[in-house]
Structure formats: C-alpha cells, structure tokens
User: Which sequence fits this backbone?
C-alpha cells in the first residue's frame, strides 16, 4: 500500500537537502579557517601526549613562518603608506602654487577690466603725451609676458596635479591590498598560536612540565653540563626555565670565539645583551623581538641596515657554506627560510625561538639548516 511506503530522500533543491549542504560547507570552511590549524583540533581525544607535543611544535613553526610573511606585508604596507602620504603632500603644495597663480591671473584680469581694455592704437590717439604712452606700452608688454608665464605655470601645475592624483589612486589601491594581506597573515599567526595553546592545555601538569623541559634541553644541550654545576641565581625562575637561563649565562661565560670584524663583534655584543628577553611575534625591540627582529636590531647596533624578514635577510650579504661559518654570520633554517639566528661560533647561535621561549643561546643543529649569509 502507498501508505506504508518509506519517504523518499528530498532532492537537492528541497529545503532539507539545502540545509544539509549548507551545514557541510560551513563545516568545511571552519576546518580550514586558519590554513591548517584544523589539524590541531583540541576536540580530538585520540592524540597521545607525544603527538600533542609534535603538533604543538609544528604549529609554532608554522606560526613563525606566518610571522615572517606578516613582517613582509607590514614592510610593504608601511612603504606604500609613506609613498602615498608623500604624494598627498606634494599634491597639496602644487595645489597651493596653482591657487597663487590663479589669484595672480585674476588680479591682471581685474586691472584690464578697470582700464576698459582699450586697444593700444586708440590709447595712442587719445593720449596727450606720446612719450608717456610709449613708456606705459613697454610696461604693458612686460606685464603681458609675465601674464603668459603665469598661464604656462597654471597649465603645468594642472598637468602635474592630474598625474599626482592618478599616482595617488594607484598607491592607495596598493596600500589597501597590503593592509588586507597584513590582516590575513595576522589572523593566520593568531590562529596557529591559539591552536597550540589549546593543545598544550590538554596536557596534564606533569606532561606540560616534561614538554617544557624537553624544549629547554633540546635548545641548550651543549651547555647543560656547565649549567648543572651553577647554583640558582637569586631572583631567577626555577625548573626548566631557570636551568635554561643558567645555561645561557654559562654559555656566555665561556671563552667566546673571536669575531672576524668589529661590526660582527658589535652585533654579537648587542644580541648577548638581549638574552632572556621574550619572543613576541612582529616585535623589533627593545623589550621583545621575533627572530628576524633580533638579527635586524643586532646589526643595526653595528651600523648595518638589514631588511626586515628572514627571506630578505638571507640575500643581504654574501652566502657562505656551513663549513665557512664565522661569528656574526646569519644562519637560516627550514626550507621556507622562516627562522634566523646570529652565529656566535662553536656551533652555537643567539636567536629568538618562539612564543614562550626567550632569547637564548642554542646549537644550530636544533633545526633544519637552510643556509647562511655574511653581512659584513
């Protein structure tokens, strides 16, 4: 009987199917909101602590790569804003010159109106003093020349203003594009960091402590034996963070490798003075830095201007091989050139690792080596 038939599935065009399709698309969009942050979904209870730690490390590395893209977008946006402001100021100056020329033309026109604008032959016929007329005619001719020059100036300023307005429109479009990219990269960075924090929150206090200790041990392995013999310094933290701070000081106490140049020495001295300061993405000092912000500031202290990002800093000097490394060289990591440190000799560098990990001395073997550059 027809009354006992099962209801057919609604076609795609019907409301129920449209609602299901909409929910599916919304779920897919949410999963890809932060360019891969969905892989670190804290709601997945099947992850082991080791998998969580590996995922957190991956998210931090991706956040740093996005930070460098953010730094690049900010550099372009700042340059576009400066250029746009300069064009706007130049347009204002030219507008004032144009208005001055127009007022001058207006004064000449008013004078001609008041004089009746008589034909020169008529004026000669009416004058009782031909010599005075000729003198006035010469002055009038000079005034005419000046008037023609003013007209030419007006035309020149009008053409220049038209060109400036066209250039300003192009710069404004570029600025808005760079600002949109800046917002996009900022959202990516924040998404990665939020996902990492949510994953870390899933660890127990003991697992979290082991994770932080593993990070500290991984970044200070060559100095740990020296550090363990040193007592806690009053006022410093204990545990993994305290051991890390002591290890960095111990590394700094050992006989340093001589820098090849005075500028390299100055850059290293500056970087050493920043040890212990926090990593903050997008920061360039003086209270916090990201990785490229630290190297840029260190070499600025040595009198050398470096570009802002890792992928531009690698081209700021002469490339050197790993076997040629000397103190002061910039060392880069990962295939996307997303991290940089300042080499100090002995296989070690000073770098700003990631959020939650302060500026420290670490072995260059802790990350995949990608290249090195000698600045000066």
Assistant:
């Amino acid at each position: 009987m027809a009354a006992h038939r099962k209801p057919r599935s609604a076609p795609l065009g019907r409301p129920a199917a449209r609602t299901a399709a909409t929910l599916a698309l919304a779920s897919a969009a949410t999963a890809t909101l932060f360019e891969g942050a969905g892989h670190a979904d804290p709601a997945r209870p099947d992850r082991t602590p080791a998998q969580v730690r590996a995922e957190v490390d991956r998210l931090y590395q991706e956040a740093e790569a996005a930070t460098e893209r953010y730094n690049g977008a900010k550099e372009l946006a700042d340059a576009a804003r400066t250029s746009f402001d300069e064009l706007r100021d130049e347009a204002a100056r030219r507008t004032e010159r144009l208005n001055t020329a127009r007022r001058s033309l207006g004064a000449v026109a008013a004078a001609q109106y008041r004089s009746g604008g008589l034909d020169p032959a008529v004026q000669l016929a009416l004058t009782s003093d031909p010599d005075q007329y000729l003198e006035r005619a010469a002055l009038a001719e000079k005034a005419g020349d000046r008037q023609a020059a003013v007209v030419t100036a007006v035309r020149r300023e009008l053409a220049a203003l038209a060109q400036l307005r066209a250039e300003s429109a192009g710069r404004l479009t570029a600025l808005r594009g760079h600002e949109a990219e800046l917002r996009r990269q900022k959202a990516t960075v924040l998404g990665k960091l939020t996902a990492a924090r949510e994953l870390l929150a899933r660890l127990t206090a003991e697992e979290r402590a082991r994770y932080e200790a593993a990070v500290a041990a991984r970044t200070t392995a060559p100095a740990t034996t020296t550090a363990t013999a040193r007592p806690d310094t009053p006022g410093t933290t204990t545990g993994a963070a305290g051991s890390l701070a002591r290890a960095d000081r111990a590394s700094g106490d050992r006989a340093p490798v001589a820098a090849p140049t005075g500028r390299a020495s100055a850059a290293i001295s500056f970087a050493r003075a920043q040890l212990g300061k926090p990593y903050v993405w997008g920061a360039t000092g003086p209270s916090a830095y990201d990785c490229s912000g630290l190297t840029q500031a260190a070499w600025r202290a040595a009198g050398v201007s470096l570009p802002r990002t890792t992928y531009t800093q690698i081209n700021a000097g002469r490339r050197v091989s790993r076997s040629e490394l000397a103190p002061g060289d910039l060392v880069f990591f990962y295939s996307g050139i997303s991290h940089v440190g300042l080499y100090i000799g002995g296989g070690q560098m000073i770098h700003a690792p990631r959020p939650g990990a302060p500026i420290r001395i670490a072995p260059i073997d802790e990350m995949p080596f990608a290249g090195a550059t000698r600045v000066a």
Remarks:
- The radius of gyration is 35 Å.
